[in-house]
Write a structure and sequence with these properties.
Helix content is about 40%, strand content about 20%. It has about 110 residues and is an alpha/beta fold. It starts with a helix and ends in a 5-residue tail after the last strand.
Length: about 110
C-alpha cells in the first residue's frame, strides 16, 4: 500500500507522506540512494528535518560527488560511498536501517 502511495512523488512529498505513515522513533535510520541528485537531496533534507537519521549513498566519481557529499554531511547525513551497480560497495549499507528510498535517475 505504501509503495503505491509514494509512486511519482517529489522528495518533499515522499518525506511528508513518510512522516504521516510512521513518525520516527529514536532517530530511525533511512538510507537514500541517489542522494546527490535534485530529488535525492530534497528527500534527505526533508527526512532530516522530520527527525530521521539519514545514510546518503554517494557514488565516488570525482569532485562533484565530493562536494555533494560535503553538503550532505554538513546537513547532518551520514555519507556512504557506494555504487548501486557494484553490489560489493553496498555491503552493510542498510544495516540498522528502517527504510530505504531510491531516488536514482535513469539514463
Amino acid at each position: 500500500a505504501a509503495r503505491a502511495t509514494l509512486a511519482g512523488a517529489s522528495g518533499a512529498a515522499l518525506a511528508s507522506r513518510a512522516r504521516a505513515m510512521a513518525p520516527p522513533a529514536k532517530r530511525d535510520l533511512v538510507v537514500v540512494a541517489g542522494a546527490t541528485g535534485h530529488v535525492g537531496s530534497c528527500t534527505v533534507t526533508e527526512l532530516l528535518a522530520a527527525g530521521y537519521a539519514v545514510r546518503a549513498v554517494v557514488r565516488s566519481s570525482g569532485a562533484t560527488s565530493a562536494a555533494a557529499a560535503g553538503r550532505l554531511q554538513a546537513a547532518g547525513a551520514e555519507v556512504w560511498w557506494g555504487d548501486v551497480t557494484k553490489p560489493a560497495t553496498l555491503r552493510g549499507c542498510c544495516d540498522g536501517a528502517r527504510a530505504a528510498v531510491s531516488c536514482l535517475g535513469v539514463r
